[in-house]
Specification:
The chain is mostly beta strands. It is built from two helices and 22 strands. 44% of the residues are buried.
Length: 285
């Protein structure tokens, strides 16, 4: 069964080696992140503005709030990987001046990756665990700006990260990719200005996408490519699906209806499919 990482509300990181019921550390899981689960083509996970869970090939991760001690393995196979504050107290965590944890993922080799927010400018806030110690990843990121990891996602080629640099109103986005968790390739920056990120995800061939508050989306096909602004998105777009060759679909949700739009010529969108999802309203709390 797939392993799982869980980032808990008190800042601890727990790991499970198998699926099944069990106690996940001392704190309840919440959902503070502002990204959606990874969207791949053709499979589509339910988009949302928070991150309830991210499923990756061969492993899965769940994120919770930022932040008592180690917990023992539970009957469900959960055990503490990092106690609350352990990563912040590490030498690289102190150099980063870590203020919170925001994302978790696995490398293809199964090593944990943890992302966070750094108060010290120019430090990316991505940590790997090697030999029982947490070490900060080395990325070529802008100096003089505080950085925060918005998402970590395992991809067919390794892992992808989305980082936010700079203060509100003058921020930018960077994507980064790694095949082994140690060597990273960093993209050109995307200036946000007053815009905010409503959702983000990954696609085929290491693509990264974001939905922005001005009604537009941006797609980054992969390492070495530049950001591409999409035409004004269809009303209700909640996520994007980026396929092989850079094809883009916009997924719009209205109630129980999912409408799939295909990017067409001359800056337009073509309605490709409408799916009515059976929902038993009131069946869950």
């Amino acid at each position: 069964p797939a392993a799982m990482l869980a980032l808990l509300a008190d800042g601890a990181v727990d790991q499970s080696s198998r699926a099944g019921p069990g106690t996940i550390g001392p704190a309840a899981i919440t959902t503070p992140a502002i990204t959606t689960p990874a969207i791949t083509t053709p499979a589509i996970t339910t988009p949302a503005i928070t991150t309830p869970a991210i499923t990756t090939p061969g492993a899965s991760t769940a994120t919770a709030g930022a932040g008592a001690g180690d917990t023992a393995a539970s009957p469900g196979g959960w055990q503490a990987l990092a106690a609350p504050g352990a990563i912040a107290a590490s030498p690289d965590g102190q150099h980063c001046q870590l203020t919170g944890l925001t994302a978790v993922a696995y490398t293809p080799a199964g090593a944990p990756l943890v992302g966070g927010s750094c108060a010290w400018p120019g430090v990316p806030g991505i940590f790997t665990r090697a030999g029982g110690a947490w070490q900060g990843a080395q990325l070529a990121v802008p100096r003089g700006q505080q950085l925060s990891v918005q998402r970590l996602t395992q991809t067919p080629g390794g892992d992808a990260a989305l980082l936010r640099a700079g203060p509100d109103g003058n921020a930018s986005l960077l994507a980064a990719w790694t095949a082994d968790g140690s060597q990273w390739t960093v993209s050109a920056s995307l200036r946000l200005g007053p815009r905010t990120v409503l959702a983000s995800g990954t696609g085929a061939a290491d693509a990264v996408w974001v939905l922005l508050s001005d009604g537009h989306g941006e797609v980054l096909p992969g390492p070495g490519a530049g950001w591409r602004e999409l035409p004004a998105l269809p009303r209700g777009t909640a996520a994007l699906a980026v396929g092989t060759g850079g094809t883009v679909q916009a997924l719009a949700v209205t109630g129980a209806r999912l409408t799939v739009y295909q990017e067409a010529a001359r800056g337009t969108w073509r309605k490709a499919q409408v799916i009515t999802v059976p929902i038993q309203y009131g069946s869950s709390s």
